User: Fold this.
Amino acid sequence: MERSRDQNRLIVSTSPHIRSEETTQHIVWSVNLALLPAALMGIYFFGPMAAAIIAVSITTAVLCEYGYQKALKKRVTIDDGSAVLTGLLFGLTLPPSVPLYIPFVGSFVAIVLAKQLFGGLGFNIFNPALIGRAFVQISFPKLMTVWLEPTAAFVFIDAKTTATPLGILKEEGLQKLLEHSGTYLNLYTNMLFGHRPGSLGETSVVALLMGAAFLLYRRYISWHIPVSFLSTAGLLAWVFGGSEGLFTGDPVLHLLSGGIILSAFFMATDYVTSPSIRKGQIIFGIGCGFLTMLIRLKGGYPEGVMFAILLMNCFSPLIDRSFRSNVFGAAERKGLLK
Assistant:
């Protein structure tokens, strides 16, 4: 049987030679699927406006990527799901009270400025969704700090504005936060299942952990960044998070509140903007946890995960170069040359 030209071609590449049926498109769409429970819980607690915010974020992201690539006569890649993922992640970082032009502006910045201008998927330095979030946070600070009390699914009542648990904790202390919930059990339960004010994707920790467990099971992400991120943040919260001295803080409260779970499993683990070497990933996660708690406890913002991850994105190339793997056979060759 005559062999084709492709079969006769000799391909030389760096070892190890590992073949996988997984594609970038399949992995990205799987991450979108893993975020679906958190998105649905955000819509459940905050109603039609939450659905509209997420829809505008995703639609704008896809249209911006399509329009940019068509205008520059590049190959259109919206079917790989990365634009959908950027829009979804960005939408999940928004408060449920923002007007719809904010998800439009933020998704445009995320796709055009933070992703496509750097060369598209695989070339961006910073997480695009977080760049979009940082842009609207700086541009519309008042609108980005209006939080709503969650309600039952699609109950059309006037929304009541309130502060997030992290905001109350930072401004008024733990006792005031407990007054809102009654007991620690109620406080933790509300945070786990999502009955608390916050951005659309950070409300239900259970929904986020379901998606994270799916990604870990399929090995689309590894434990190195999330575990080092969360353990560092929890340790610093325990040591420095109290008001009466060391070892009086509540690590569980800090780990359940804010966007730390969403960020640790779905943003800090981004393949493009995080280190690829395992040791480097642990350093990256430790840095994210340290900066998050530094901003939460000592900074002006009650939340710090966005700035922490963006700052650590700057160091990802340096971390990878610092933990470069040894060349196979280099030690033996060096011994032969003596």
Notes: Residues 48-71 form the longest helix (24 residues).
